[in-house]
Amino acid sequence: MPKISELFFKTAIVFLILGIAAGLQMAISGNHGAYPAHAHINLLGWVTSAIFGGYYALNPTKAARTIAMVHYGVYNFGLVVMLPALYLMLHGNPALEPIVATGSMIVAASVLIFAFVVFSAETARSVSGMPAVPR
């Protein structure tokens, strides 16, 4: 499996654990005010990361491109900015909304990077600069 797929899958599992923890916290406290953050953690962190990992696993030539690692870094940076700020904003910190918006824009930019990867030609160079070879 390509390294980028492993990274996306491992990151997805971390977000799954965080999403479950957020859900349990809401259930135990009886305060479900952060359900949008819970949903974002699960859908963007767990599901979307796993889908990205699956795409790269099925397309090893594209997975070997440097831009795939850029996609991973930008996407996860955006999530790390957005998700905690969203969670805290929903728990009574409205001043965090600009941080949530900034993280959202970073995530959106990373999705455009992924779109470029998907729609670009199969021929690619690997991170080492040598032609990428499908496994």
UniProtKB/TrEMBL annotation:
Ranges that cross the membrane: 7-28, 40-58, 70-87, 99-121
What keywords is this UniProt entry annotated with? Membrane, Transmembrane, Transmembrane helix
Tell me which InterPro entries the record gives.
Answer: Cyt_c_oxase-like_su1_sf (IPR036927)
Originating organism: Mesorhizobium muleiense
Question: Is the Transmembrane keyword given for this protein?
Answer: yes
What protein name does the entry list?
Answer: Cytochrome C and Quinol oxidase polypeptide I
Asked if the record carries the keyword Transmembrane helix, the reply is: yes
Q: Which domain of life is it from?
A: Bacteria
